[in-house]
Amino acid sequence: MNVAVVTVGDELLAGQTTNTNATWLCERLNERGVTVERVTTVPDRVADIARVVNEYRAEYDAVIVTGGLGPTHDDVTMEGIAAALGRPLETHEEALTWLEEDGYSRSELTEGTAELPTGARALHNEAGVAPGAALEDVYVLPGVPTEMQTMFEAIAPAFSGTPTYREEVVADEPESALLDRLEEIQDRFDVSVGSYPGESVRIAIESTDEATVAEAAAWLRERVDTV
Amino acid sequence: MNVAVVTVGDELLAGQTTNTNATWLCERLNERGVTVERVTTVPDRVADIARVVNEYRAEYDAVIVTGGLGPTHDDVTMEGIAAALGRPLETHEEALTWLEEDGYSRSELTEGTAELPTGARALHNEAGVAPGAALEDVYVLPGVPTEMQTMFEAIAPAFSGTPTYREEVVADEPESALLDRLEEIQDRFDVSVGSYPGESVRIAIESTDEATVAEAAAWLRERVDTV
C-alpha cells in the first residue's frame, strides 16, 4: 500500500512551524508496512488543497490530509476536500451530537464546525473539538499534534502493508571511502541500503525479511570503522 | 517571487528524519519576502525528482532542491535534475578543481562526484564535498544541514520579494470564542490573520506594512485574554 501525506498550512510554508506531524505520520505508516510516496505542504487555499489531493488520489492508494480544520477563516481544508471530491459541505449530525456530548450547545457552536463533505464518515476528535473525516480514499485529520495523533490511531487499521525491517550501522569513515562495501553488501544480501552522511555516515539496511537485515548488518559492522 | 522547495530522501518519507531543512529554507525565504508555495518530499528516484521539479518549474519562479547529492548509489538528485532539464550529466571542471583544492586527488574521487547537468553553474560546498548546482530556475543543494545552509547563503541574493512583517498575539481563550475579534481585526486593518490553536491560540498578524502590523497587534492585545 502506498500513500501521500498532505499537510496544510501557511505557517509551515513560512517556516514558523517544523512539520513534525509529517514525520510522525510517516513513521507510523512505515511501521505498518505502508510506503509514503509524497509529503506535500500546501497553503491554506481551497484550490491548492483540492488540486493536490486529487492528483494524489489518482496516483496512490490513500491520501492523509492534516491541518486547517476548525472554525476560523483560515481553516479551509474541509472546503478543499469537498471541492476535490465534488461534494457539498453539510452539517454532519453525528459530529454535531459528539460536540454536544462534549458540552457545546448547538447555538453556541460556530457555523461550519460540524460541516463535512456529504457522505463522509466523521472522525471523533478525542483530544479537541474539530471533527475529522474519512471519505473514499481520503482521510482528514486536525493539525494540532495531539489531536492528529489520537485520531490517526482510530483509523490506523485502514493502513497496512508488508512491514520493512531496518538496522543502522554508523560508520566513522568518509562516505566516499565506504563505496566498495556499500556495493558489496547489496551484491551479497537482498537488502536496500541508504547512506546518510553527517558527522558520521549512517547506513540504513532494510528488507522485508528480518533475518536478512540482521545478517547483512552484522556483515557490515565487521567491515567498517564503527563509531 | 514565489518558489517551491523539493526535499529528496527516502529517510524523510520513512519518518526517520524530521524535515528541518524545509523549515530552515522556508524561514530564510520568508524573511527575504519570498512566498513558498509548496514543500514536497520525494523518494530517491530519478523519475519522481524529474517530474516534480518540472511541474514546479512550470508553475513557480524558482525551485530549490535539497538532498541526494554525493557519491553513493542512493544519491540520484543530479540525475533527476538532468532528466528534468533534458541535459546530460558531465564532469564540471571548476567543481573538480575545488575538490582538488580541498585535498582530493582526481584519481581518488569517486566517479560522478563532480558531475553536474551540462551548462550548470557549480555551487561550492564550503562545509562538505558534494558540489551543488544552479541552472535556469533550479537550485540544487546538499541535504546535510550545515552544507545546505552555507550553500544557500551564497545563492540567497537570487531570492527576493516584498518583506512581510509579522507579530503574534497569544490568546488564552478557545479559538471559537475569538471569532468576533478575528473578524473585526480584518475589517479594521489591512492585515492577514492566521489562527493556530494548541494549548493556547497563537494569532499571527501579517502585512507588508510594519506600522499596520504593530497597530493591529496592539488593538488585538487589548481585546483578548493574553497568556
Automatic annotation (TrEMBL), chains A, B:
PANTHER family in the record: NICOTINAMIDE-NUCLEOTIDE AMIDOHYDROLASE PNCC, NMN AMIDOHYDROLASE-LIKE PROTEIN YFAY
Pfam families, A to Z: FLAD1_M, MoCF_biosynth
Organism of this sequence: Halopiger aswanensis
InterPro entries from the UniProt entry: CinA, FLAD1_M, MoaB/Mog-like_dom_sf, MoaB/Mog_dom
Matching SMART domains: MoCF_biosynth
Protein name: Competence/damage-inducible protein cinA
Residue ranges of domain MoaB/Mog in the record: 4-162
